[in-house]
Design brief:
single chain; binds NADP nicotinamide-adenine-dinucleotide phosphate; Rossmann fold; alpha/beta; N-(1-d-carboxylethyl)-l-norvaline Dehydrogenase, domain 2; 12 strands; 55% helix
């Protein structure tokens, strides 16, 4: 067999599917896995694609099987394992070979790895891959960070395996070093917010309107034909229709309400905070997952405090309220995406990446977990208004926000009055209301800061910094 076009290390869920995808698209691939039995198993699974797969049992054999300059995808557990794998691989490589970390790396690790290899003659690509198992097998969304030269070496293979939206491949080179993994992290942060908002709407339908899982599935099915059309709404409907093999009822009703998280949501929030960009939807979603995991504490609190002593959700026109829920979810989703893109924009400046916003929205339209037609609208908005300060002030989205924020306000108000938790939906409303108000309330904060810490303040009638005078008030009289 001829030498492979590319190599892949790590035949777990993602790696094995990605390798089959690469082989299926006509590329020859060499594969290696730490546990060699898995390599044999994988080769059997490759079936008809075996003639394009070179299974290797040693790193030496693996490296020799790939055509130089060698692009090698490392798709293993994120963290120290990647550093260890890179160290093992390094002595076998030659100048211009490319190590590609395709796992969910923290972009700061990617920047460190990129720097560490800089003078070695080797190159590093940090590559975000989204779409889970199915995406990896049949077309993921791929976010590439590294040198443009290294991208040119892998462009053909990656383009062949990426998802397609109306024929357009969902892969792009986004910038140097950590750009690809940063964009993937924010993709996941937005995903957290989107999922939390859907869960809150589900909660209003289940606990507020007392609807059964199958009825909620019908609602989501209807929404999936409209502007909320997306993978997440689609799978929410499927999930709500699934039956429990054991008890026979809806499966969703017997799933414990404790959400897991692996870190990308938290990283999104940390980086947003580091850059001073509000990402309240992602923050609310990460906090909600943390709160969800405190199951025993929540149960104890329900015993101590009881549920809020408030009237049940008051809805006179159920159909109108469900229409409001659809628009509320759309408005809140716009808020979360606007925040995610604002974080990307700040990071682009901070790390000199020159991130292409329309391209990012374009490669998220298919293959990834947040894929939706809505992202096509974002692509258009950023293409038409590249210098917009925020997605919500682009003409198209400003119009939609104005059309839907009333529904969001009614839904959040109704949920709050009925004691139903909607932290992410409410965060979007708070974001809109704060962002669109030219005169806010931070004058009070500045006055307080100046009073107790002499931090100074600017006046509305001039830019000079001032301090006091605050006179003698209650505090000094008491002390
Ligand atoms: P997985 O099924 O658990 O497979 C883990 C792989 O990592 C196995 O091949 C394992 O080899 C290898 N590995 C673990 N520790 C290693 C070490 N110290 N040295 C060498 N190899 C090691 O994981 P996965 O779901 O495919 O995830 C792989 C990466 O993709 C992770 O970074 C994950 O966050 C990311 N990701 C996952 C998804 C998803 O939906 N699952 C989506 C996007 C990105 P052995 O067989 O020898 O244990």
């Amino acid at each position: 067999m001829a030498q492979a076009e590319i190599g892949l290390i790590g035949l777990g869920v993602m790696g094995s599917n990605l390798a089959l995808n690469i082989a299926e698209k006509g590329n020859t691939i060499a594969v290696f896995n730490r546990t060699t039995e898995r390599t044999d198993e994988f080769f059997q699974e490759a079936g008809d694609l075996q003639d394009r797969v070179i299974p290797c049992k040693t790193i030496e054999e693996f490296v020799a099987a790939i055509k130089p300059p060698r692009p090698i995808i490392i798709m293993i557990k994120a963290g120290d394992a990647v550093d260890q794998q890179m160290e093992t691989l390094k002595p076998y490589l030659q100048a211009h070979d490319i190590m590609i970390d395709a796992g969910n790396a923290n972009f700061r690790d990617t920047m460190r790895r990129f720097e560490a290899l800089k003078d070695s003659g080797l190159t590093f690509i940090g590559m975000g891959v989204s779409g889970g198992e199915e995406g990896a097998r049949h077309g993921p969304s791929i976010m590439v960070g590294g040198t443009e030269e290294s991208w040119k070496r892998v462009e053909k293979v990656l383009t062949s395996i990426a998802a397609r939206y109306e024929g357009d491949p969902c892969v792009a080179w986004l910038g140097e070093n950590g750009a690809g993994h940063f964009v993937k992290t924010i993709h996941n942060g937005i995903e957290y917010a989107d999922m939390q908002m859907i869960a809150e709407i589900y909660g209003i339908l289940r606990d507020g309107l007392k609807m059964q899982a199958s009825e909620i599935a019908d609602v989501f099915g209807g929404w999936n034909k409209g502007r909320l059309n997306s993978f997440l709404i689609e799978i929410s409907e499927i999930v709500l229709r699934a039956k429990d093999d054991i008890g026979g009822g809806p499966l969703v009703d017997v799933i414990l309400d404790k959400a897991g998280q692996k870190g990308t949501g938290k990283w999104s929030v940390i980086e947003a905070q580091n850059m001073g960009v509000p990402a309240t939807g992602i923050e609310a979603a990460v906090a909600a997952r943390s709160l969800s995991s405190m199951k025993a504490e929540r149960e104890a609190a329900e015993t101590t405090l009881g549920l809020p002593d408030v009237p049940a959700l008051a809805v006179s026109d159920k159909a109108a309220f469900i229409a409001d829920l659809e628009n509320a979810l759309l408005a809140a989703k716009i808020g979360a995406y606007a925040q995610g893109f604002a974080v990307l924009s700040a990071a682009s400046k901070e790390f000199s990446w020159n991130l292409p916003m329309p391209t990012i929205a374009r490669i998220w339209r298919a293959g990834c977990i947040i894929r939706s037609e809505f992202l096509d609208e974002i692509t258009q908005a950023f293409t038409e208004t590249p210098d917009a300060a925020n997605l919500i002030v682009t003409p198209a989205f400003a119009k939609t926000v104005k059309e839907t924020d009333g529904a969001l306000r009614r839904v959040v108000s109704a949920a709050v009055l009925a004691g139903l938790p909607v932290p992410a939906l409410a965060s979007a409303l708070g974001y809109f209301d704060s962002y669109r108000r030219g005169r806010g309330t931070a004058n009070m904060i500045q006055a307080q800061r100046d009073y107790f810490g002499a931090h100074g303040y600017d006046r509305t009638d001039g830019a000079d910094s001032h301090h006091g005078p605050w006179g003698s008030g209650l505090v000094s009289e008491r002390s």
